[in-house]
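Quick one - first record:
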Amino acid sequence: MPRKRHPIQRYSQTDLQVARNHVAEAKRRIAGQRALMIKLAADGHKLDEAKRLLDVMLKLLTQMEKHRAEIEADLAGRGAIEAPGAEGQKRGSRRSGRVPGRG
């Protein structure tokens, strides 16, 4: 959980861009992990460790998204951006941790 900032400390546009970059990179890595899992499954490998890693990656992404939203809300509250989610990203998630086609 992100630590609470002191009321005098404020997030900056730089903080928001860093948070957005972290979310985007995490999504790229998750996509790579999923692709690797499909290949491993096709080659007959067990996926236990790969599934555990994907689960951790998804949990971390959720935390990154919450932190990004916290920054967006702070900036929006000060009129520094339009509104939380102003970058046009959809809220909610279709992440399940399942390997596509594997039930």
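second record:
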Amino acid sequence: MVHRRRIGEHYSKSPIDNATKILTYFHTDPRQTVYVGDSDVDARTAEGAGVFFVAYKNAALSADYHLNRMEDLEAILNGTPMHAD
């Protein structure tokens, strides 16, 4: 989690703008970034910022991956099979 004070006090109310500012601040390639969230706003933010989206405990969201246990995030990041729930 990145707090707005780490990237400056001037921030936008747009989640996409804020995600883009975080990527810029940390010199991060969006194609090597994962956004984990559980809401439609999270999914739209990840899409707008051009990063991979992992939906947490919400199978209804459109996502690159769906996750029901945070323990499985490492498997997603490493490209290894996950446990069946």
